[in-house]
Design a protein that fits this description.
globular, tRNA-splicing ligase RtcB, alpha+beta, about 475 residues, 15 helices, single chain, seven-stranded mixed sheet, eight-stranded mixed sheet
């Protein structure tokens, strides 16, 4: 990306001042090399977002930003309904409430090593993965609506996981305001047998090892030590969320706000009937994602018990990164209720935030940053100054640097699996092509991304992890 149009506010903060129809600046948080390597479409999409009505402060992009549908992935924007603010399906994304959940227990990588192959096989057998993957659960229409209203709470009530898990999930495991009646029959049909499944693409189930601690106090608060095993689950609302995104983007394109600079930015006023219907459906999809990750947690624990009995896996945290949430933020000295879109961006509340569970309130919210099956991942913690920078938001992963199609021209899945095994990483997959699409070389340097997030003041590094086992779709 050419930096001539940017005003450099710091080594990790770059502004495009409002011009033309832009209502607010566009701001990217990234180191110079990261921003130079970004596609020019990131700048174009971010400045387009800055033209939307009711937008507050700025349109933001995180260090892992790359081109997306309408909004850049890694984009953050907040809208005030009192100023004609809008809701955009493209600003949430198709995989509604896709997120990462981290589990940990009193287990070191050295203790796991003798059972590593067995555990990889047990996970692969227990958790369905891949395009169109289905699970053992079959939901009736009534059960579907209950799940869409209840989220992880619904799952726990049916024996999937533990009641204490809910304390470590955003909003206690249930997004309020879900309206299943605004979810199409087609969306519900797609989800009827997909609960408890990973899906495909960049979704994964990964066993990781803590190799570096940056913040000892935060690591202690999270219960993490050097060489500890962490299990990360990355998935979302599966076919239901994708169908909701498809359905409402079509409706917003026909009935939504006009004019817009890009048809992919189709949106509707928050207070309109269409806007309210989308919000109700989106929150139902968020509950689907939360229930899905909760069921997978149960399946992971069962697989773990087979291989490593008497080791309890506790939930560290679960945070989504494709959402629109109602939050209170101070704008020009006034406390306002805003609708904060985060697309490929993670909420990152700092210490003392009232929405954090008591055990985390003093230190701040865990920010779970996925890398690739062959590189590092990170756990960061929210910072108080981040609220004023980007509405308490941070990056969500490494971020793609190459399309999936392009990746398959450079790598072969079988070869990658063999190379990673030589490095001590076991891959279990149903698709060699899927592995090639997700090749580590197709992503940005997650170390640079995490470092940029910290230096920008968005979130602070706590621990660095490397993969031991990765289950891919």
């Amino acid at each position: 990306m050419n930096l001539e149009s940017f005003k450099r506010h710091s080594d990790f903060e770059w502004w495009i001042e409002p011009t033309g129809k832009m209502r607010v600046p566009a701001i990217i948080y990234a180191g110079e090399q990261l921003i130079r390597d970004m596609d020019d479409k990131v700048r174009e999409q971010l400045t387009n977002v800055a033209t939307l009505p009711g937008i507050q402060r700025a349109a933001y992009a995180m260090p892992d930003a790359h081109w997306g549908y309408g909004f850049p992935i890694g984009g953050v924007a907040a809208f005030d309904p009192q100023q004609g603010g809008v809701i955009s399906a493209g600003g949430v994304g198709f995989d509604i409430s896709c997120g990462v959940r981290a589990l940990h227990g009193a287990l070191t990588a050295s203790q796991l090593e003798p059972k590593k192959n067995d555990f990889a096989d047990a996970l692969f057998i227990s958790v369905p993965a891949g395009v169109g993957s289905t699970g053992a659960i079959r939901l009736t229409e009534g059960e579907m609506d209950e799940m869409l209203c209840g989220g992880a709470r619904w799952a726990v009530a049916r024996g999937y996981g533990l009641p204490q898990d809910l304390e470590s999930i955003e909003e206690g495991g249930c997004a309020p305001g879900a309206r299943p009646e605004f979810v199409s029959h087609a969306a519900k049909k797609r989800q009827a047998d997909e609960m408890g499944t990973l899906g495909s693409g960049n979704h994964y189930l990964e066993v990781q090892r803590v190799i570096e601690i940056f913040d000892a106090a935060a690591a202690r608060a999270f219960g993490l030590n050097s060489n500890d095993v962490v299990i990360s689950i990355h998935c979302g609302s599966r076919g239901l969320g994708h169908q909701i995104g498809t359905d409402y983007l079509k409706m917003m394109a026909i009935e939504g706000y006009r004019p817009i600079p890009d048809r992919e930015l189709a949106c509707a006023p928050i207070d309109s009937e269409l806007g309210q219907h989308y919000l109700g459906a989106m929150r139902a999809a968020a509950n689907c994602a939360l229930a899905n990750r909760q069921i997978i947690t149960h399946l992971v624990r069962k697989a773990f018990e087979e291989v490593m009995p008497n080791v309890e896996l506790k939930l560290l945290y679960d945070v989504s990164h494709n959402t629109c949430k109602v939050e209170r933020h101070v704008i020009d000295g006034s406390d306002r209720e805003l609708f904060v879109h985060r697309k490929g961006a993670t909420r990152s509340f700092g210490p003392g935030h009232p929405e954090l569970p008591p055990r985390l309130r003093e230190v701040g919210q865990p920010v779970l940053i996925g890398g690739t099956m062959g590189t590092e991942s990170y756990i960061l913690v929210g910072m108080s100054e981040g609220e004023q920078l980007a509405f308490s938001s941070a990056c969500h992963g490494a971020g793609r640097s190459m399309s999936r199609t392009e990746a398959t021209k450079h790598w072969r899945g079988r070869m990658l699996i063999d190379e990673l095994r030589e490095k001590g990483v076991l891959i279990r997959t149903r698709s060699y092509r899927g592995v090639a699409e997700e090749a580590p070389g197709a992503y940005k340097d997650v170390n640079a991304v995490a470092e940029a997030a910290e230096h920008a003041g968005l979130a602070k590094r706590v621990v660095r992890l490397v993969p031991l086992i990765c289950v891919k779709g």
